[in-house]
Amino acid sequence: MMKEEIGSSVLENVYKAEERLKNVVVKTPLALNNNLSAVYDANISFKREDLQRVRSYKIRGAYNKMATMSQEDLGRGLVCASAGNHAQGVAFACQTMKVRGTIFMPLPTPGQKLEQVKMFGGSYIDVVLHGDTFDEAKDAAMRFCNENDGIFIHPFDDQAIIEGQATVGLEILEQSKEPVDYLFVPIGGGGLAAGVCSVFQELSPQTKIIGVEPSAAASMKKALEKGRPVLLEKISRFVDGAAVQQVGNLTFELCKDVLYDMATVDEGLVCETILSLYNKDAIVVEPAGALSVAALERYKDEIKGKNVVCVISGSNNDITRMEEIKEKALLHAGLKHYFLVRFPQRPGALKTFVIDVLGPDDDITFFEYTQKNSKEKGIAVVGIALKHNEDFTPLIHNMKKYDFFVNYLNNDPSLMNLLI
Questions:
Q1: Does 177 qualify as catalytic in the annotation?
Q2: DSSP one-letter code for 354
Q3: C-alpha distances in Å from residue 403, one per residue of 153, 335, 346, 378, 399
């Protein structure tokens, strides 16, 4: 299908999808965020898809796709692959429509998302854990489809999926009292972005749409650079809701000429944003759900005085991840540092380190040391939290002055993976 044909058909079908979904999805609020509006001197509103029934927008596309299928196809058995949120949407639709589904998920999927999928799908779904990434789970799901004559429900690269996600865009325009100047949208495979691009291109072409990806899984950015979707050889899975190695062909076509810009966000900034939203606004988001807000700082000069909408895409965050999130946030802010430290094997060495090396506000948060009887000095791994990042330089100076310093570990990803 040519791009012009795609564009002309989508908007009409989005209205049909909105009607189809009206008794299924929640019309989530578009809420002004006073804290960020003051920070950026702009009107910053959140489209709260984290308050959706399955705590993400993915229910829109999944249900819309299944509602457009024939009873014969539904009866063949549905198959999907997902890092979590699409799986919940499909599971919810399977139970609601009383059809069977098999859901493939990557092995590292957070436990909270896995349990939610089982809860929403009940006895109508089977969950299969396979591979380390979404793309590996998808390959297994496609093989399963071929072997069992099933129907694959793609998480993003399907027109009915895109039209379902596009209803987010319709709601934003219906709910906004003023024209939307900037719209920040998280991107994984591109289904949500393709949907809102299709709607805004027709109904609000002056809106500047900015796609936001994790810097360690920037598949749309790479596709735009190359002029076509390309497979990223290696991605980080931390922002699991947006960790996709390759965006869809259809989503790329719908996004490539409409996106105003693409932003990438480091994992540490994502974590800072998660904690800030929780502490200041009592909003719980998953890493992918924080992407749109995390990108605001980069555009602070552009958005001043403007009407800005950030899509909060989901809140399916596993509580067991919070310690890792806090750690990554502190590391990104320059407030947490790890070292190899040389300790003289004599009484009082630690006291000397605490009194003469650490600043008055510095705190030891990690200490691992084994005494070696045959050596004068032993090596310890020490984690230190700072109150202010400008305290880092005097800390390094004191370590070297008193001959404690061996190595700084924060810049070594392999060693840091062992610590956090």
A1: no
A2: I
A3: 61, 23, 14, 12, 6
CA angle in degrees (0–180, nearest 5) for 228-15-292: 50
Q: What's the pLDDT at 231?
A: 95
CA distance 163 to 332: 37
Residue 42 near residue 305, CB atoms below 8 Å: yes
Backbone angles phi, psi at 206, to 5 degrees: -80, -15
State the Cα–Cα distance between residues 348 and 354, nearest whole angstrom: 10
pLDDT 10s digits, 199-237: 999 999 999 999 999 999 999 999 999 999 999 999 998
- Given a contact cutoff of 8 angstroms between Cβ atoms, the answer to whether 384 and 363 are in contact is yes
From the list 313, 315, 328, 336, the catalytic residue is 313
Cβ atoms within 10 A of the Cβ of 387, count? 12
C-beta of residue 216 within 8 angstroms of C-beta of residue 245: no
Catalytic residue status for 313: yes
Q: How far apart are the first and last CA of the chain?
A: 47
Ordered DSSP codes for 222-275: HHHHHTS----S----SSGGG--SS--HHHHHHHTTT-SEEEEE-HHHHHHHHH
Residue 397: CB atoms within 10 A of its CB come to: 12
The two tokens of residue 101 are 């589904």
String of b and e for 248-282 (b: at least 16 CB within 10 Å)? bebbbbbbbebbebbbbbebbbbbbbbbbbbeebe
Per residue in 316-367, pLDDT (tens digit) is 888 888 889 999 999 999 999 999 999 887 888 889 999 999 999 999 999 9
Q: In terms of Cα–Cα distance, which of 46, 3, 9, 39 is closest to 185?
A: 46
- Round to whole Å and give the CA distance between 87 and 79: 10
SS3 of the chain: helix, strand, coil, percent, to 5: 50, 20, 30
Kindly give the pairing relationship between strand 405-408 and strand 336-344. antiparallel
Considering 58, 221, 222, 256, which one is annotated as catalytic? Answer: 58
Ramachandran region of residue 378, left (φ > 0), alpha (ψ -120 to 50) or beta?
Answer: beta
**Can you list the residues of the chain whose pLDDT is less than 50?**
1-7
